[in-house]
Fold these 3 entries.
Entry 1:
Amino acid sequence: MDLLSLFPEWVLVHGPAAIVVLPLMFGALVALSPSEKLSWATTWIVTGLSGLMSLGLLLQVISHGPIGYAMGGWKPPLGIAYSVDALNAPILLLISVVAFICTIYALPSVVAEVGPKKRSTFYAVFLLSFAGLMGMVATADAFNVFVFLEISSISTYALVAMGSSRDRRALPSSFNYLIMGSIGATFFVIGIGFLYMQTGTLNMMDMARVLQDIGPGDRVVQLAFAFIVIGLGLKLAMFPLHTWLPTAYAYAPSFFTAFLAATATKAALYLLMRFTFTVFDPSWDFISTALMVIIAGLGTIGMLAASLQAIFQSDIRRVLAFSSVAQVGYILLGIGMATTLGLTAGYLHILNHAVMKGALFLAVGAFWYRFGITKVSDMRGLGKTMPWTMAGFTIAGLSLIGVPGTVGFVSKLALVQAAAENGWWWAIGVIVVSSVLAIVYVGRMIEQAYFQPVPKINDRYIKRNEAPLMMLIPLWTLALASVAFGINSHWPMSLAQGAAQVLNDGPILLIRETMPAIPAIPSTGGH
Amino acid sequence: MKPQSKTRFKPMPERSENQHVILRVVAKLLIPLIAVYGLYVHFHGDYGPGGGFQAGVIFASSIILYALIFGLDEAKRVVPPSWIRIIMSLGVLVFGGTGVATWLLGGEYLNYTMFAPDSTHAAGQHWGIFAVEIGVLLTVTSVILAIFYAFGSRGGSRRGSHSPNPVDGDKS
Amino acid sequence: MTMVFEHFNFAVVIVLMMTGLFAVFASHNMIKKLVGLSVFQTSVFLLYISLSKVTGGRPPVLSKKELHGYGDSYAKAGDGADAAYKTVEKTAEIIYSNPLPHVLILTAIVVGVATLAIGLALVVRTREEYGSIEEDEIDAYNYQDNLEGVSR
């Protein structure tokens, strides 16, 4: 609580709005900036500030409970409310910290991959995308979620397309993402429309209250749930709806791929948890069935199918992208269990997967930056030519497999424990099989890098050519974090437990806790 | 081809000069009306249907009409693309800045009451909405024009390969 | 049949929605896909707009005839609060349609415009790079790229 006193009170009161508004406004400023260095520096500082504010909010939430914020001073059921509690505060911190770390990497990477005239625009659109992600996590208003979902998605389409100066395939993959993403967002907004039709409110907590009165028998409510799950499923790459993800990850600028892989699906996963557990009621029949059959079921199928597909990919980033789909499966499995342990494991894996997948994609970007490598078969001898980058890649890769001492192990162990508690022995089998498949696809790359000879050009071995420091620092920060939190997992575990607590308590507690916490502004003006 | 020395406009390309006299005369009549109507919709937004988004689209359409009749290059001379970029950002900043102003006055983000806390008839709300809508008007006008320019300048021949113009996901 | 007419708005919404989705999934032309997407999104706009209709409700606009008190409050600042209360009392008797879905859909329309603009920009750029907007042909080119391992 010592750390908390360092934050000015203003941040703790207005933080929920400030973390969204700050990047949005500076995004507009960055678009005007004449020099790309200036845009980069501004982006870096803004993401850093957002990270600091998110940390303050998280500490405040841990010590004093949820923070509510009434936009424009309009009290919650009427106005747009923002709310930060133990469920979304860690996600906010995750998004902003990953953005902050990845932005360091952006300076050399963007110069290599994006045309000179587009670079300021690139940073501006990145800030928009960042603001959108923060907004959709921070807000407690169902329609506001849609708006921010689309702000982040639309800017993501543009950023993925900017990879076209490196590889023209970025364009059709961005288009594909646009079609799927828009359908997903539209399904989501149809679901919100049905909920609004039945409840007459858009505030999530108020919605939950009214839904409790309506009860589970209402067909429109069931329909709304179906639409919301499918819409979010498209956004979070739930197994059969994941087809947009591998190509989008493979051809986006590498800095943005790392950010996207670490955060975008995570924000959608958060929304899935938020809607399923705190707006709807998981004890309702149709929801508990959906959780077990659809969310956990598709999660496990995804774990196997996507891991299998990852083995047969030749492009490194596609391997990792399919692995992301499989990892989303782990998280969905945890959520589908709907027990405290399962939710804790799923939530923990959200945080852990972001750290390791971010590190992996950063390393792959560095391979391209130095040698133009995109294929697994081209990774020969990277252990000698780029030892530090490859070492970071290996640590994160081992974490992806789930080697003890890494974050991957911690969350997989938690997941296995949760499955055992539930008696879902088949799930444990799937986790083990999927981990074995992960050994194959990660091992394939590590084998190429360390056990294959350095390739020759004109009868000369390629010289050692390490990635620049600006790339190594963020890569190693994330790789070391994946070890540090793997050895001492107390802090992320406590965050995940706090989040699972919120999910378990369900909708009712949220209303009681959050509503009065919104600072009362004396209504001096007569409306 | 007679150069139009009296006007300060560049001489038109030959084709449009001779063939589209009616179009040009009608456009000259309509464009100011459309622009004024756009502003009317904007400022009437306080009392009736209207507001920055609709007004921005109407206002931009007057310039688009100009571009359709007189050519894109002529329109770009009247409203240069570099302005558009600045205005686009300016609009977002006006919107966001209104919120920042309410922060500085001690209220929540966009709590317009802070502009006139003692007013008995919600004058603060009027001022706040006015400021915000100006921002919306600026951004929407410039974004619509930016989209039009981005597509219009690629007609027919394939030249250059500049970026697809990223559009702000702006709120109305 | 009566059910269709009772819920005419939903019938229209469903027809549009399915048309749009079908166009998105069935066509291989990128522009046609975008057209389908727009139709699909428009069906949602209609869904929201039809939600907001209240039977016998007026457009949610304050007109001077109903509310001269509100207009007067500008002139006489002193009794502004009273006038406001009178306004509330008067408006309570009038049934208005729900204005909120309109506002939401205005936002969704903006989002739709932005999506469409980005989508069309992508189509233009794709045509510049590939010389085609047919997805089959683009896939064939991509297959070629995959084999050759293009990295520029």
Entry 2:
Amino acid sequence: MEAFSRVPMAAFENVGFAYHSLEGETAVLQNISFTVRKGEFLSVVGPSGCGKSTILSLIAGLLEPETGSIFFPACEDESKKVNIGYMLQRDQLFEWRTVLQNVTLGLEIRRKKTKEARKKLEEMLEKYGLGKFKDARPSQLSGGMRQRAALIRTLALEPELLLLDEPFSALDYQTRLSVGDDIGTIIEKEKKTAVLVTHDLGEAISLGTRVLVLSGRPARILADMPLEFPEDLTPLEKRNTAVFQEYFQKIWKELKKDEQ
Amino acid sequence: MNSKQDLTAQQRFLRTHRRNRRMVCLIRLICLGAFLGLWEWASDTGRINGFIFSSPSQIAECFWNMAKDRSIFLHVGVTLGETLVSFFLAVLIGLGAALLLWSVKSVARVLEPYLVVLNSLPKSALAPLLIVWLGANTRTIIVVGVSLAVFGTVLNLYTGFCQVDQEQIKLIYTLGGTKRQVLSKVIVPSTVPLLLSVMKVDIGLSLVGVVIGEFLAARAGLGYLIIYGSQVFQLNLVMMSIIVLCVIALALYQIVALVEKRLISR
């Protein structure tokens, strides 16, 4: 557990954000401040539509905060971004590419598609059970395999910070548990820092090392909870512990309190 | 009887399927034969005026004579050549314009009503004007052919580009891509099926446009033959040209459909 240091990776300072349309303004984030530290797996939970995904888009730089600021203390030049990998809700594997070509998409875009990089990805596909499918089309993969392929595509760019936007929400419950387990383990093995956004409390607790609880829109931070589990449990095993239940109740109460 | 029971359900299904397909083909041929036979008979016995309505045998004879002196090949060649040139021009210009509209949204927003008007305008109305402007020559014919197909191509492709899943586009941005890469990695490859179905429509429209152009401004080609034939009251020639046009239209469509099948099943 001491593996993760206190080194901050990305920080929000009083960030506010609203969407604008002709019908009016929708405030989604209000005065959000928190820090993601190196090596940690931060789960962000909150009711649907509270602006969780917006947080990820802000970190990734796809959106700019309206008020406040976001910075990356891990970079020498703080205004610059760390290398970020973003995993979207649906896998978005392209049917007109093979699995291997899908996985190398990021490298192609950043013009880093070298022989070595390709070889490394092939090894990774092999390691995570997709070796036989590298020349298959995405439609030939199961839902879980597709998510793994999407994760490998994200990891291909060797991001320092991984953003996961409800990456399991499109899967059925059983697949979801096992893929969550898989992906949690892969991320731990590859020693990545990650921010997971989800509305599934169980997922947030079993995967995370810390949970950020958000209120309904416009989102405020209701609680910031570090999670302590007996060491070396997989996400699936964590679900069977007593501590898991405690955390679950605690977060549930926070969310309920906010509803009223 | 025994052997029939030995067949598996799948084999029986396949056999019925094949039999049905053969039946459909057969009935089609019978329909065609009956139609031609009736026509020939009515014309021979004077129930319809053979001078005005022609007859299958007269049409065949007309074709044979023109094939012998090779003049039909000239006319088919001219029409085919003009159609292919306007088809490729329409697809290229249409694709280029649609890409431009997608890349510069503000241009698209400004131009949209004009495109809609141009698309729904009957382009044959423009043909006489084009002849005055461009002269009675092959260039005019090709421009008419292009004008018929190009606006629909632009609108359809642009709409298709806009309907590409926003999340797929977001993926490219999350991987650090630019707008150009969105275009080359997502928009274009994901709309290949659309492009092919647009091409299927375009090949027909180009042919229509070329024939309209030939009506007005040609010295050769099937459209010219039709107009010429009707003016000198040689309706055999008119009918024969129409039938050759049918065959050309079918053949061109099938070629594009074949290309489509090849590319999509890959």
Entry 3:
Amino acid sequence: MTAEPLLSLRGLTVDFRLPQGVMRAVDRVSFDLAPGEVLGIVGESGSGKSQILFSLMGLLASNGTVGGQAVFQGQDLLSLRPKELDRVRGTSLSMIFQDPMTSLNPYMRVGDQLAEGLILHKGLSRSAARAEAVAMLDRVRIPDAAARARRYPHEFSGGMRQRVMIAMALLVRPALLLADEPTTALDVTIQAQVLDLMAELAREIGTAIILVTHDLGVVARLCDRVVVLYGGRIMEQGPAEALFEAPAHPYARGLLQATPRLDEALTPRLGTIPGTPRSGGAMLPGCPFEPRCPLRLPVCAQVQPALTARGGTLAACHLEAER
Amino acid sequence: MTLLEARALDVGYPVAGAGLFSRPVLLPIVHGVSLALHDGQTLGIVGESGCGKSTLGRALLRLVAPTGGQVLWQGQDMAGFSAGQLRRMRAGMQIIFQDPVAALDPRLTLGQIVSRPLAVFAPELTRADRAARAVEALARVGLSADFAGRYPHELSGGQAQRVGIARALIGGPKLLICDEPVSALDVSIQAQVINLLMDLQDSMGLALVFISHNLAVVRHISHQVMVMCLGRVVEVAPRNAFYARPLHPYSRALTAAVPEPDPRRERGRIGQSLPGELPSVLNPPKGCVFASRCPEAQPRCHAERPELRDFGGRQAACHFVGE
């Protein structure tokens, strides 16, 4: 990457203290994100994909600890004091969640919730902030924005609430938007609208996005680059085109083959990955996917493979390296 | 043979009236749905939230009583069934649910859960017979005999759904109603469960009603596809004909909105989403249910509701199909 990265993760690790011991949710994850780039993190439940976002926002549960570095615009997010992190979160780092209803304050008018951030972080007057909030609601295509701004969240449909969340997140024109399964709760035609809106606004404002999802189709629509996560580790990463066309890691291949799609001939059976996704537990000495991998070698249970270049992507797999 | 038939089925729920003391009013959810399902066939029912697909599934089992029309089980109208006949009918017709863990009683062992229906369907069996049948049913869904002594909290989501299927199979059903059975599961597990349902259909001659919002999953498993919108059927067609060329503009909008894991193709679909939202069930339109969002809508569509019409082996409810 030629330009200075906007965000640079180095060895990001998230541990949770549980009664049965320490559970590693994210294990030494490193990647760079360029300004304006859209990165997708895909994985199944327990892969640690959401915990990466939570750790960046300082939103980990109280039994969680974080290690490594996350340098964002020149400062390490993980070592900031709460006050400093607050300022970053209010001005250049925003997040949207899967369930917009639980992220909006049910007692506060939507317009006031949007204006709050501008008053606190940008020092705008109440009336100026309200005007900007209404303009932003209009921008995310909330019909009749001025009247809608005076309504409460329960008066909005699910798709409109997510658009309100996007409006709120982008109001401060952040350099980076973290999106945790933003369209998972939405119907497919509404999902298409929200993805369109995210793509359009990100381009317009120049915001970079990290999109966490389990849906490979959503990643394909929105993302420039993809990180495939399993058991807290990166299995494969690379440009979206290269990764979807020629996935090098057996897990990435398995995920793609297990996804039924409309644009290909029907097969009598879907491809499957045996076993169930790994969730938590002690750290394995080898590859976390080894117990489910159809192509595993003896070495896979003992030594963790490093990310190495294959074709157009980077993959962490002993098998491909031997070829 | 026609196993299950619905004729002009209406289903509604009582909701609170406008005033504090006014009598409950009937909110219609499903309007005039007719369908016929044959032995060993799969009918896929797709639609977005609030389209009535789950309510229809429950009414087919008579878990909710229809407010109009008929449901015929093997040619007999269920409305006239005695309690005993309903019980016998339900041994032949079972349901599995979206949330597989919530569908299992946490205080019972899996053996008890799976064999429970036998207390109703085959009360003459001894305890040992029932336990043996439970182990058989578990084996059929790919779970070993030692699962019979375990409890639901020990299961992953995919395993819990297998237990739900085993319980549904134990009475020797001819028909399984599957209400979003894989929506809560990870992609790799979803593929396992779909393959299992298709294998069971082959080996036991099961008919399936497969209710889902996921068009790609429905394509994979169905022989016949039915699209619902705001409680009405807008299109019914054989699977291949439907996906090759959906006739109703709503069907086309749905299939076009599904993101595929193909970045080159998806890039071109950004900005193509259909604006607007579906009308509320509380305030249904007078004309076509899709008219407010339909890119091809004419004045007639807002004024007059289109009936389902035949188009050579398939049906669609649109004034302008075939013109």
